[in-house]
Amino acid sequence: MDEIRGDEIQGDEIRGTARGTAPVPLSVLDLVTVGQGRTASQALRTGVEIAQLAERRGFHRYWVAEHHSMPGVASSSPAVILAHTAARTERIRLGSGGVMLPNHAPLVIAEQFGTLEAMAPGRVDLGLGRAPGTDGATAAALRRTDRLNEGADDFPQQLMELTRFLDDDFPDGHPYARIHAVPGPVQATAEGGVQSPARPPIWLLGSSGFSARLAGVLGLPFAFAHHFSAQNTVPALELYRDSFKPSTVLDAPYALIGVAALAADDEREARRQVLTGALSMLRLRSGRPGLVPTPEEAEAYAFSPMEREFVDNWLVNIVHGTADEVRSGLDDLAKRTGADELMITANAHSGEARLRSYGLIADAYGLPEA
């Protein structure tokens, strides 16, 4: 495979800075969750408020994740959400965690994220995944094909095509050599052009070893979905580091992990809040996706023994409790995995609970109030 160039990307656009007493940089992953009795408009407003809080308190980046056909998740269009958020923030890095590359034509993604880069220069990340972010039938509708495995198998080729569109460097004779992603580097070469050739850094996302190895071989930053694949975290990070080859993008590995974490004023309230997300996930995995239930509904739900086992196993991997307990759990996770950055996702019924959680975590680490 050709090398990923990214000549204008520097490692300091990727690496964050730990603030306060945090062991590593802290960031936010937002699913723009929609609770019962709430609208998508309210969820999107909460997303902006979370990004603004994260910016004030020194979190390094705010990412949104592409999902489809899930009533309780309003993040089907990351580029649109990021444009909206870019207009309401000033400094925090914004990105996709991630865009599911096989769902889209690489040229379309290059155009969307070139536009975002023009809107928010120097603070846009392009995180890419190869899963559909939904069920098979919805993926087939998105891709207009039933050959879903083909899309995943073609991921390295699609990645290279996207990179060449972003860098505007298809070789002479290539069918796409005369095609340009705009906004993009081609504008700097046009007569009178002053467009910056810089483009968003590419991250590879994964929950297994495939993307870990690919990110390492290409010298790209890697984001692992610890929040739903915790048993694979350490092996995937080891594979990434063992496979890593220095590139023009990075001279050393850089890996973040997505972490489900929620802090509340007391342990019972934290448990009530995370149970809503666990019940929502249970319903999703059972083929009954819906809005995130209220804490009252989750507490009153009559779990079968099999359902209770699923929920208990799910909650084991959510760091929750008081702010001090969450801080301790995050510290332990950073030490155990050696992750270079923790990206926290707080899933709960209400936006207020999620905002409160990020504020409590910031306080626990003494993050400065800008």
Describe the secondary-structure layout:
Layout (H helix, E strand, L loop, with lengths): L25 E5 L9 H18 L3 E4 L13 H9 L6 E8 L5 H14 L4 E6 L6 H8 L4 H6 L1 H13 L18 H4 L12 E5 L2 H10 L3 E3 L8 H11 L11 E9 L3 H19 L9 H6 L4 H12 L2 E3 L1 H15 L3 E5 L5 H14 L6
Features of the shown structure:
single chain; 370 residues; alpha/beta; 8-stranded parallel β-barrel; 9 strands; 13% strand
Strand content: 5-15%
C-alpha termini separation: 44 Å
Helix percentage range: 40-55%
What is the SS-derived class? alpha/beta
> What is the mean predicted local confidence, pLDDT?
92
Q: Per the principal axes of the C-alpha atoms, what is the gross shape? A: globular
Q: So how many helices? A: 14
Strand line-up in the sheet with most strands: 1-2-3-4-5-6-7-9
Quantity of strands, as a count: 9
Largest sheet, in brief, is: 8 strands, parallel, barrel
How would you portray this structure in words?
By secondary structure, this protein is an alpha/beta fold. It is 43% helix and 13% strand. The protein is built from 14 helices and nine strands. An eight-stranded parallel beta barrel has the order 1-2-3-4-5-6-7-9, surrounded by eight helices. Helix 3 (106-119) packs across helix 6 (155-167), helix 10 packs across helix 12 (305-316) and helix 13 packs across helix 14. The longest helix has 19 residues, at 267-285. It is globular and about 65 Å long.
